[in-house]
Amino acid sequence: MSSEALAQIITRAGADAGFRRQLVADPEGVGTASGLTTGEIDALMSGDSARLRQVGVTEEMSHFTLIELPAVQKIRLPAVQSNTGPSKT
């Protein structure tokens, strides 16, 4: 398999969330249907840029990851009452 086909999969997964979910759910099926070897599928799913470069992916594309980080949400903390007066003990 050429690194060109692997690059196309990376490009599509980066732009198409549905394809990316499909790739995560069934990497062997999607990879095999796309003509990738087992080693290429393993490198793609590893998220390891060195492994991706070993199978022919460019430096720029080797930083691709399928891990989706959750959106950062603002956390509301409960109001804290300050006690500015002298302590009563």
Please tell me about this protein's structure:
The protein is mostly helical and 89 residues long. Helix content is 49%, strand content 0%. The N and C termini lie far apart (77 Å). It is globular, with a radius of gyration of 22 Å. The protein has helices at 3-15, 17-25, 27-33, 38-46, 49-54. The model is unreliable at 69-75 (pLDDT under 50). The chain is built from 5 helices and no strands. Helix 2 packs across helix 3 and helix 3 crosses helix 4. It has a domain at 3-63.
The portion of residues assigned to helices is 40-55%
The biggest beta sheet, please?
none
Mean pLDDT, all residues = 78
- Evaluate the radius of gyration: 22 Å
What is the total tally of β strands?
0
Distance N to C terminus = 77 Å
What are the segments in which pLDDT stays under 50 over at least 5 consecutive residues?
69-75
Strand content: under 5%
Cα shape = globular
Give the structural class: mainly alpha
**What's the SSE pattern?**
HHHHH
Count of helical regions: 5
Question: What's this, in brief?
Answer:
This protein has about 90 residues and is mostly helical. About 50% of the residues lie in helices and about 0% in strands. It has a domain at about 5-65.
Defining key terms:
89 residues, 5 helices, mainly alpha
How are the secondary structure elements laid out?
Blueprint (H helix, E strand, L loop, with lengths): L2 H13 L1 H9 L1 H7 L4 H9 L2 H6 L35
Helix pairs in contact: 1-2, 2-3, 3-4
